[in-house]
Design brief:
seven-stranded mixed sheet; 13 helices; Aspartate Aminotransferase, domain 1; 386 residues; single chain; alpha/beta; four-stranded mixed sheet; 2 domains; Aspartate Aminotransferase, domain 2
């Protein structure tokens, strides 16, 4: 009898080892992994360079606490800042914690600069930002908030890509921040349109509203750019990063432009494990590999290839959305759960999402041959369900 708290719906398969795009169960059966641990092991399972970085740091120094200077943390902060919005960095352990830091930053900014008169945060309906009390409050899905009411009462939700609804909610002078996913991952792989994001950016700049982009799933190369917003010609004020930042070692970060980040002063926030030596060492190696023009170009090419093939397979029974290797396949006439279980039978792993959508998140290191084999198994699974 399991003594685990029953908070996860698990599929009936367990794995003992992995390599690249493959996972192996106790009987040695090989599965093609189109989940990457929900966009975490973007460089594949047991990547040789990542494993070497883990071993080297694990035999040197793991942790000293943030009471002391950590040169690796300072180096990583510079690399991450230079590769993104040029802000200052707070390190933590997850996307939830990164979102929590962003929410606290918004509130302290509104309290200190505007004497508490600005405190509301606008979020998108269908969004997902975490499961702590603050981050589930800004999550625009009732099923995530259910059972924990009353949630924070200063959050307002608007439909993504509905600029009129945004303007209507943001017109009052009590809004301090807006939080958006460039592509809603948990919400069904729903992209925010460039025109919508551009108008929101312009409005936030005019009104001194902090624009936060949640890059937890869209970051670290998943869309074919290091961060999702880099497909456009404008920047947010704050980004949250996690998941693939250390390729499976728990790590998150918030990057905030200085005029906002300076409001989190000594003692206002912290993390015991955030930015420890092991996580920083691995994240430096991850960024070295991913933040490479050739590597990112290959991700875009692989994404176009996969999107085209899947689009052909589901042309009459669904649609494909997304960017790079962050793709969602919304099905018609077939329950996504039945399809996922059929894929498991075919030794292919895919991820559920909202609106009867299945996410396809293979490791960024996947080969074209592995993509094609995954597509064959998807086609076979669908064929057996019709």
């Amino acid at each position: 009898m399991s003594r685990l708290l029953n908070v996860y719906k698990r599929y009936d398969v367990a794995f003992e080892r992995g390599k690249g795009v493959s996972l192996f169960d106790k009987d040695g059966n090989e599965y093609i992994d189109f989940t990457s641990g929900i966009s975490v092991v973007n460089l594949g399972h047991c990547n040789d360079e990542i494993s070497a970085a883990i071993y080297k740091q694990a035999t040197t120094l793991l942790h000293t606490s943030n009471l002391f200077i950590n040169p690796l943390q300072e180096k990583l902060a510079s690399v991450l800042s230079d590769a993104s919005i040029g802000g200052d960095v707070f390190f933590c352990n997850s996307g939830t914690e990164a979102g929590e830091a962003a929410i606290k930053l918004a509130r302290i900014y509104g309290n200190k600069k505007y004497d508490g008169l600005r405190y509301k945060i606008i979020s998108m309906k269908n969004s997902f930002h975490g499961r702590s009390f603050a981050t589930l409050s800004v999550t625009g899905q009732e099923k995530i908030r259910a059972g924990f009411e009353p949630v924070l009462d200063f959050i307002r939700y608007v439909p993504i890509n509905d600029i009129k609804a945004f303007y209507e909610e943001a017109k009052d002078d009590d809004v301090v921040a807006v939080i958006i996913e460039v592509i809603q991952g948990e919400g069904g792989v729903i992209p925010a349109s460039e025109s919508y994001l551009e108008r929101v950016r312009s409005y936030c700049s005019d009104k001194d509203i902090i624009l936060i982009f949640d890059e937890v799933q869209t970051g670290m190369g998943r869309t074919g750019a290091l961060f999702g917003y880099q497909h456009y010609k404008f920047e947010p004020d704050v980004i949250t990063v996690a998941k693939a930042l250390a390729n499976g070692i728990p790590m998150g970060a918030m990057v905030a432009k200085k005029q906002f980040g300076d409001y989190l002063t000594m003692g206002t926030h912290g993390s015991t494990f955030g930015g420890n030596y092991l996580a920083c060492s691995v994240a430096l190696k991850v960024l070295e590999i991913i933040n490479n023009k050739k590597f990112l170009c290959e991700i875009r090419e692989k994404g176009e290839h996969l999107k085209k093939r899947i689009g052909h397979i589901v042309s009459n029974i669904g649609e494909v959305r997304g960017e790079g290797l962050m793709l969602g396949m919304q099905l018609e006439h077939i329950e996504s759960e039945k399809f996922i279980k059929k894929c498991i039978e075919k030794k292919l792993l895919v991820i559920p999402s909202a609106n009867n959508t299945v996410r396809l998140y293979p490791p960024l290191t996947v080969s074209f041959e592995e993509l094609d084999e995954g597509c064959e198994r998807i086609s076979s699974a669908l064929g057996e369900l019709f």
